[in-house]
# Entry
Amino acid sequence: MSKTIDYGNLMHRAMRGLILEVLRGVERHGLPGEHHFFITFDTRHPSAQLADWLRERYPEEMTVVMQHWYDALSVNDDGFAITLNFGDSPEPLYIPFDAIRTFVDPSVEFGLRFETQDSDDDDEDEDEDDTEEATAPRKEAEVVSLDKWRK
# Structure
């Protein structure tokens, strides 16, 4: 058993489950009212499927808008397929839930952001810090009272 609870991954899984449920509802009933979505995803994800010209134009990430015109929405446990209009040219996409970086519904001011840990030069410093933390003695937990903010 792990020595820590991985809250970050648990939260990401829960947030992706929320997106899955929302898109399944849209798949069955369409977009209700003024709802619409801005979905940013990693175009480099190995399971992402998009036209070569779109991948060349958006080599790292792409934001799509699901609002007035979309077709063939099909949702599964791993992601969703959708056809969107790009300059009067319908293009099919497959977006894995693991590739989503942001999911925003501006009609109700709702948004989710998935933090990514891109590898860069700072990783070496972080690795050293992890080693120091692992060997340092643990401190007592500090209890914080929230009573002064309650009404």
